Amino acid sequence: MTKTLRPICLLLGLVLFLLLPPLLFAKGPDKVVLQLRWTHQFQFAGYYAAKAKGYYQEERLDVEILPAGPGTESPTAMVLSGLADFGVTNSGLILSRMKGEPVVALAALFQTSPNAWLVLADSKIGSLHDLVGKNLMTLPLPESADLLAIFVHEGIPLSKLKLQKMSFDIEDLIQGKTDAFDAYSTSEPYFLAQRGIAYRMIRARNYGIDFYSDVLFTTEAQIKERPERVRGFRKASLRGWIYALNHPKEIALLIQQDYGSKKSLEHLEFEAEEMVKLIMPDLIEVGHMTQSRWEFIAKTDVALGLVPEVKNLEGFMYDPHYKPDYSWAYKTLAWTLALLMALALTALWVLRLNLKLRREVQERHKAEAHLKESETRQRYMIERAPFPLVLTQRSSGEILYVNKPARKFFVRDASQDPVGRTTMEYYADKDQQRLFAAELKRVGRVEGMEIKLLVPGGELVWAMVSASPMDFGEERQLLVGLTDITRAKALEEELRRRATTDDLTSCTNRPHFFELAQKEMERSKRFKRELAILMLDVDHFKKINDLYGHEVGDWALKAFTKAVTQELRTMDLLGRIGGEEFAALLPETLLGGAGVVAERIRLAVEQITLPLAGEETLRFTVSIGVTNLRAGDKDFAEPLSRADKALYQAKAQGRNRIAFLP
Q1: Integer angstrom CA distances of residue 114 from 36, 68, 519, 565
Q2: What's the average pLDDT block by block, 10 residues per block, for the chain (662 residues)?
């Protein structure tokens, strides 16, 4: 008997050898340093809340929060040098990545940048174009990337700007030492409001440039070597942000008392109110990022000449589900255990040869009992799972069982029981059904496929679907897990719309218009089709702004866009090029036909009447330049330039007219 137990004892000894060290050498909380990008204020409230509420402690982290200020090292430099483990910076982080630095974005707290050109209301500066030739106090590139990118975006060379070195003193704006101040919408406007000084902000997002800000980041090495620490720090920080946004007064008081902030409670609460507009927690998950937004920011950095090309973006966005590869260790352990088991079984076989038959019978009975127990356990786990799970017949797709969360997902009333139906009834897109079946056939399982479902009652929902085969007895079944991503899909669509649409007029914005125009031009040349281009400019628009204010100017642009759109076909494309300038593409249209459309537009705009205060009304006109595509045009800039020249001919001839330049 002693010989029989020896291999088993050896196996137990190995298990103890592997399990005891983590228990014996467990350490206390892990010390972590977070480098902020400015002094202590509500801008970093989430991190203070995470520390005060014990969220970091729950993740076994002891976090030191370091402030910054003028003249201190940047958060990126601190993290790359190893003096800090995590940092908070702006969208310039992607520039560091493209230059080869191993930085990784963990979360974007501000979904839109707080940076804005702050001007005094009595300065008569109301738009981006009014800033040309004025004194602009700002930080150097790349810190000021979004505020300078809007000039490039609008076709204004940076060489035409009068840039001043940032003093960080709002008095320079008040005293007239500068005309526009690179400000944070959550901070400097407060000082002006306190002194009763009227102001205006010119934001980058109103001109098609919308950057992330206050990005939490770390390095690739941290993620690879300490993945659990990174995951825990990010999780606790985002919890802290949610708490801070829901309890602004409590956290404002904490910042004053524990971090010595020089700002008043009223100022900190002002910060909190403004930050909600930037974080948008009711619309977007706190910390949310998308690859397409980062790619847009990277392309903008290229347009500013900060880097020659977009590169090194793979791995820039953190994957919260990242797990290090320990497969080599698992394989080694598996082989060791397999070898020991083989030795033990061999010893038992030699010593108990005469009991072989009896043991086989016992093992068979044990296996059958285990199978029944396993089936019961699996059904229990499915029923108790907190997320929707569906059990289907693999061959027919018949739904055999749904747990409670799945029943809530599919059922709107008692007559809609999904059990007995087939999964095919719920697909809103048959192509997705075929893709699901093909993936299941190819690899035997499906992981994280996004599928649009049609639930009873006609409601469309999006689900992230995973499926794994499962055997109960001789039956072949499929266990399907679902995650409702309908809200995330709606958000994704809204962000995509914002990236391609002009906020004010709802027509195509400049970057997207140029992208579509280039494609339409290539299509027309390839198939030898006609293409006409119109350039449109609202006459005397600056005078409208000066006389009636920018709110009336915005109203006029909206009415103008509506009138023009009504005269265009569905296949035509209207885009806002900048300010009061618009362009339209007319596929399959000769120059003469384009002239007819242009005249309809001119007459429609001439009929616009906007009521103002009292009996006063506003009417305005439009000048239009018309050209068509030439066989020798290499890119869209060439026909657009001709249309622009034709437009200026129309203006030179007295405005409210059409000029042609074939």
Answers
A1: 16, 18, 34, 33
A2: 50 49 61 96 97 97 94 93 96 95 97 94 91 93 86 88 93 96 94 94 88 96 95 97 97 95 94 94 92 92 90 92 55 59 60 54 48 53 75 85 81 72 85 88 87 82 87 73 84 81 93 94 94 97 93 95 96 94 97 96 97 92 97 94 97 96 92
Bridging pattern class, strands 581-587 and 531-538:
antiparallel
| Same-domain status, 80 and 59 | yes
CATH of the domain at 79: 3.40.190.10
The pair of structure tokens assigned to 496 is 């995509």
In this structure, the answer to whether residues 634 and 513 fall within a common structural domain is yes
For tokens 């602004």, the residue is 248
Q: Is 0.70 topped by the overall pTM?
A: no
Task: For residue 293, give both structure tokens.
Answer: 């937004």
Q: Which residues contact 554 (CB under 8 A, 6 or more apart)?
A: 504
Establish if 439 belongs to a structural domain: yes
Please answer whether residues 60 and 26 qualify as being in contact, where contact means their C-beta atoms are separated by less than 8 angstroms.
no
Question: Which structure tokens are listed for 295?
Answer: 């790619």
Q: Note whether 524 and 629 are within 8 A (CB).
A: yes
**Which residues form the domain of 443?**
385-486
Give the Cα separation of 182 and 174 in Å (integer).
13
350-386: string of b/e by CB count within 10 Å (b at 16+)?
A: eeeeeeeeeeeeeeeeeeeeeeeeeeeeeeeebeeee
| Domain presence at residue 494 | no
Contact between residue 469 and residue 443 where contact means Cβ atoms under 8 Å apart: no
